[in-house]
Amino acid sequence: MATRVAAATLLPVVLSLLLLPRTDSSSDDYSAFVYAGCSQGRYAASTQYASGVDSVLTSVANSAPYAPYANFTAPSDSSLVGLYQCRSDLPASVCTGCVRSAISRLSSLCSWSAGGAVQLRACFVRYGNDSFLGKQDTAVLFKKCGGTPGDAGGVAMRDSALGALVAAAAPEGGGYRAGGSGAVQAMSQCVGDLDAKACSDCVSAATRQLKAGCGYATAGEVYLGKCYARFWANGSGGFSSSAGRHGFGLVHAIATGFFASLVYVSLVI
């Protein structure tokens, strides 16, 4: 009989790293930390739930070299599931390294938590027993605007690039979209448990957040519960160290649903 554990609704802790690398894919540190969340519910060692968590995360690590997305159910408890999502435009070697780094982060940040999630630059890993699989979630978990200040022309190009993400046909097998307009590039990624419409709706919500919240910034990114979107101006340097230190604005929004009632801690190193 499976060990019953309090539902793993993800609450504190969440950490946000201000010093993000450049946004363009050519220079990303793919395993750089973005945020994490851990449930308040806990489980004990040497229980069926502990065994289930180990099984799910082992399956996640073993699958990463072969596919950008997969989900798994614990053999001992059908309510305990885990998934991972890599940026599906990147090589399998990047996905593998990122997922293994994410699992290591979960082990240190969410030790013995009934549910946990971590977002790194190129991948997302989550496990828990709170029935999140296949459910839409557009709660804003992390948002940042940065780069050097731009102008109205840059804003117009940004809006056009983000609009291209929304207009793109639902991608096959991965949920990755890319768009551009003039000097501005944009990309988005959905978690693979969303269907095509839910992915499009999530991307639309993410782009609205960036348009409404980033003003004349020349780079921005927003992470929702089941997708994220980014934009950057070519040659703008994305999120430089100076932008992080001098506060081009880390913006948080706390919403119901995934990661409800979060407490954010920002780190500057």
UniProtKB/TrEMBL annotation:
Residues 31-132, 136-236 form the Gnk2-homologous domain. It holds the Pfam family Stress-antifung. Coiled coil: none annotated. It is found in: Cell junction, Plasmodesma; Cell membrane. PROSITE patterns: GNK2. It is a single-pass type I membrane protein. One of its GO terms (cellular component) is plasmodesma. The keyword Repeat applies. The chain crosses the membrane at residues 247-267. Keywords: Cell junction, Cell membrane, Disulfide bond, Host-virus interaction, Membrane, Repeat, Signal, Transmembrane, Transmembrane helix, Transport. It comes from the Eukaryota. Residues 1-25 form the signal peptide. The keyword Plastid does not apply. Belongs to the cysteine-rich repeat secretory protein family. Plasmodesmata-located proteins (PDLD) subfamily. This is Gnk2-homologous domain-containing protein. The lineage of its organism: Eukaryota, Viridiplantae, Streptophyta, Embryophyta, Tracheophyta.
